[in-house]
């Protein structure tokens, strides 16, 4: 196959979820509805938190940042998909593809880190209630979000750099609805062994370490709750953690399910359909939870 220099690749083709033309209007309506619900639900949370002084607490500060991340996460993929469905086009420019994968990585990792920070906030609130306001002061919880964003930004720039160094063959059809780095590695004529090792290592670190932190936090939380003698106290403690735990299970459960299913199944199109769960469905359901 003839190679092209990476500067000569002008666009990629996002093949999407289906080639059936009869399904395109249905997919357009479905994803437009999901996107509008996601944006409206999360913006209402941000508006409620910012307008009510009683909600200016660490827990709701983290929640509003999570909502903003969810809106941004969906915005990196759905609008481009909707445009392609409406115009019956599958193309995305080379620069647009790099931009999309960079922001997708940024907000995916940021969501993971924010969920970890929220678990730590609940740990302090339940296990150290008398010291909560001292530990979770505005400077500290603002710093937690800033560090989470900085780590996510550096990681996303590393993803950008890895893909920008690749050369591509004539075939630039991406079997996905967005520019997923592993899919782009498969299209490259370059040796991507190191890239694949690196991207899975990053995924394991920025996925496994936050998840381990969440599990540790909830182990401590559950242990502390079980020592509470009052049933009302136990219910109150569980109620403050239940929604966060549900979001954690939804995000990590669907994400792990996608990657495990893609490892078992050889169908890239099925992997793309499964990716809808954590890229679009999870941000839509978070406001309801």
Automatic annotation (TrEMBL):
GO terms for cellular component: plasma membrane. It comes from the Eukaryota. It is found in: Membrane. InterPro entries: GPCR_Rhodpsn (IPR000276), GPCR_Rhodpsn_7TM (IPR017452), Olfact_rcpt (IPR000725). Residues 41-289 form the G-protein coupled receptors family 1 profile domain. PROSITE patterns: G_PROTEIN_RECEP_F1_2. Putative odorant or sperm cell receptor. GO terms for molecular function: G protein-coupled receptor activity; olfactory receptor activity. It holds the Pfam family 7tm_4. Keywords: G-protein coupled receptor, Membrane, Receptor, Transducer, Transmembrane, Transmembrane helix. The chain crosses the membrane at residues 26-47, 59-78, 98-120, 140-162, 197-216, 237-260. It is a multi-pass membrane protein. This is Olfactory receptor 7E178-like. It comes from Bos indicus.
